[in-house]
Amino acid sequence: MRDLARLFHSLEDETRLRILALLLATGELCVCDLIAALQLPQSTVSRHLAHLKNAGWLKDRREGVWIYYAIEPALPTLHDTLLPALRACLRESDHGQADLARLQGFGAGNRCA
């Protein structure tokens, strides 16, 4: 029951939903990309990323000093069941569309350099 509560608690915050929307749309992003797209401080973004990772939504990888996040490919069953509904809802979100447009406005290439 505790895992179920953690899962739904991870989805109750707007910032965490915005992060999920960006990752669902792009595949993988560096923390600096998320900071720029969300226009939030690094500490806030990192706290929400840790929450999503602890709830089983995300995986991370380190490349030099940068940490990249993506949706966990081997999601638990309940997560995997909720993912299509989340994807559909978040795709239509005004915040999600604005965040994605802001991210795309930074252009391709290494935004973290």
Automatic annotation (TrEMBL):
Domain of life: Bacteria
NCBIfam families: HTH_metalloreg
Keyword Transcription regulation carried by entry: yes
Gene3D superfamilies assigned to the protein according to its UniProt record, in alphabetical order: Winged helix-like DNA-binding domain superfamily/Winged helix DNA-binding domain (1.10.10.10)
Keywords: DNA-binding, Transcription, Transcription regulation
Coiled coil: none
Lineage of source species: Bacteria, Pseudomonadati, Thermodesulfobacteriota, Desulfuromonadia, Geobacterales
UniProt name for this protein: Transcriptional regulator
